[in-house]
Specification:
Distance between the termini: 29 Å
Shape: globular
Helix content: 25-40%
Number of domains: 1
Radius of gyration: 25 Å
CATH topology: Alkaline Phosphatase, subunit A
Strand content: 15-25%
Structural class: alpha/beta
Number of strands: 19
Length: about 600
């Protein structure tokens, strides 16, 4: 059996060599020649700014391994996320659809999933590209961050779990890294919740007083004992929930292997080496291919957990250290592909879920990313800094080396691109907003298939981009923009994240219009006096928006208040709730050391 598998592997290498020669001789016929299924490795960074990488202009943070992908492959310079926040952006990436189509766009209450024990998540009726690859014979694995929900109705139904969305193997965090996960950092979520404790206490007190008044006036048939128990339960619940005794760390900072909890709470200091180990192990187990490995980094989301080996190594403090550690992890995985002779038969892709988090600071130290020349950042609606991300593709012998493509592309394009490479077909019964990138990457077409792209903030359309192919202009109209405080600064007034509506948003009528092909920094809004095509451009964009809105259908809102609040009956727990605790990774490490 071993000899047979080796022959298969050698055959795949010869096919790759043959196709590489054909690329050199006749690149335009390449796509018709590809008759086998390549393995696929996707690297998705968290909160990484496009300006943090050497190949995108950074000369102070060392990213030689990520830069290697640009040197040996194709670099996209107008690669756009469908949302400037984690949950909706990742939902769009996995489904190839704007998050508003799946109910993952967010409401006024919440724009991301905030608890492991909430009922919202990627709907079960959505078909991820991982699920299609799985049906096409791929071994599929997700290592790292998920942030698309876990349970719906019970603690173990795992309706939103990665294994229910096309992944054969999962190792990582079902939610997201946050300050509460690291004991040495200020509690991020707990601090926010405790500021609300007084208002909730007032609400409970008012409810109890109302019950007492109703009892005295004989409006409700409740006993004094029942009223007392309800009051006690209410106060105890909220004091317990909003306490600073570390329950949030135990409930939300967990690591799972498939359906099993392995760490609760997670040991953040060893997260990176364990996830690297899992990624390399997945490749080694499935090297006969085809396989799809999705490495969804916890880097570079705060609290910037970095191993001792990299602390103090960069010129940009802990943030730079964290970026350089991620680059090293990318290098280790690329080295594994080389060692297993998989480089020529594997498509590798690197990107980020959205732009850098500009408000992330500790004192005077910047703990968020740099978005280069682009305005805005994470959660800042339609500004380029929050949605323009790296896009690097390498497929040795199949894609040109050192090519730069400035055409507008989207993270949603990965969906049809991967599906077509795997020999599958995209779903026909629903709108797919992504476009197959292979013709553009290979050079068989000159322009992107995207003409209009829509930039949402939650459920609100904040901006629209129009790529006018005949002229080469890329127009962008902003209908709403967040109010920065003070004017011109990077952050928003009195908020951790810029809002999508309300007092924290400024409406523009007529819209702010920019020509990104001449002003990518969005520094000089156009007017009828400065741009003769002003009215004509806005008229064309308005028609496109109307057509886009006609394709939208009402769907259940996964990020509604009811779907994002903490529900104790949905809490994954290793041990006895609420005192959940286990460390199976430690036991595994100790057992390995004994042998």
């Amino acid at each position: 059996m071993k000899e047979v598998m080796q022959r298969v592997a050698h055959s795949r290498r010869y096919i790759c060599l043959f196709l590489s020669l054909n690329l050199f001789l006749n690149p335009f016929e390449l796509q018709a020649l590809v008759s086998y299924k390549p393995s696929i490795v996707i690297f998705l960074a968290d909160d990484l700014g496009i300006g943090d990488i050497g190949c995108y202009g950074n000369n102070t943070i060392r990213t030689p391994n990520i830069d290697r992908l640009a040197k040996e492959g194709v670099k996209l310079t107008q690669h756009i996320a469908a949302a400037p926040l984690c949950t909706p952006s990742r939902a769009a990436f996995l489904t190839g659809r704007y998050p508003i189509r799946s109910g993952m766009a967010g409401t006024g209450h919440s724009r991301v999933l905030q608890w492991v024990a909430s009922s919202g998540g990627l709907p079960t009726n959505e078909t991820t590209f991982a699920k299609i690859l799985q049906k096409q014979g791929y071994a599929t694995g997700l290592i790292g961050k998920w942030h698309q929900g876990v349970n719906c109705q019970s603690r173990n139904d795992h309706c939103h779990h990665p294994l229910n969305h096309g992944f054969d193997y999962f190792y990582g965090m079902p939610l997201s890294l946050m300050g509460d996960c690291q004991i040495t950092q200020p509690p991020e979520k707990a601090m926010s919740l405790r500021t609300k404790l007084w208002s909730y206490t007032q609400m409970i007190a008012l409810a109890v007083l109302t019950l007492i008044a109703a009892k005295l006036t004989h409006l409700v048939p409740l006993s004094w004992k029942t009223i007392f128990l309800l009051a006690l339960f209410g106060f105890s619940f909220f004091i317990f929930w909003f306490s600073s005794f570390g329950f949030i760390r135990y409930w939300d900072c967990i690591v799972m292997r498939n359906h099993e909890i392995t760490e609760q709470p997670m040991n953040v200091e060893r997260a990176a080496p364990l996830m690297l180990r899992e990624a390399i192990s997945f490749i080694e187990r499935n090297k006969q291919g085809p396989f799809f490995l999705f490495v969804s980094f916890l880097h570079v989301h705060t609290p910037l957990v970095t191993t001792k080996k990299f602390i103090g190594k960069s010129s940009h403090g802990l943030y730079g250290d964290n970026v350089e550690e991620m680059d090293w992890m990318v290098g280790r995985i690329l080295d594994t592909l080389d060692k297993e002779h998989l480089k020529n038969s594997t498509l590798t892709y690197f990107t980020s879920d959205h732009g850098g988090h500009l408000e992330a600071q500790e004192g005077n130290a910047q703990r968020g990313g740099w978005n280069g020349i682009y305005k805005g950042g994470k959660a800042m609606a339609g500004w380029e800094g929050g949605i323009r991300v790296p896009g690097l593709f390498r497929w040795t012998g199949m894609l040109p080396e050192g090519k730069v493509i400035p055409e507008p592309t989207s993270l949603m394009d990965i969906y049809p691109t991967m599906v077509h490479l795997a020999g599958g077909t995209v779903p026909q019964e629903r709108v797919i907003d992504g476009r197959d990138l292979m013709p553009l990457l290979q050079g068989s077409v000159e322009h992107s298939e995207h003409e209009f792209m829509f930039h949402y903030c939650g459920m609100h359309l904040h901006a629209t981009r129009w790529y006018q192919k005949d002229s080469g202009n890329t127009w962008k109209a902003h209908y709403m923009t967040p109010v920065f405080h003070p004017e011109g600064a990077s952050g928003c007034y009195k908020t951790r994240f810029c809002p999508c509506s309300g007092e924290g948003v400024r409406h523009h009528n007529p819209p702010l219009l920019f020509d990104l092909s001449k002003d990518p920094s969005e520094a000089m809004p156009l007017s009828p006096d400065t741009e003769p095509l002003f009215q004509a451009v806005l008229k064309s964009i308005d028609r496109a928006v109307e057509e886009h809105r006609r394709t939208l259908r009402p769907v259940p809102q996964q990020l509604s208040l009811d779907n994002t609040i903490w529900k104790p009956w949905l809490q994954p727990c290793c041990g006895t709730f609420p005192f959940c605790s286990c460390d199976k990774e430690k036991d595994d490490i100790e057992n390995r050391q004994q042998f």
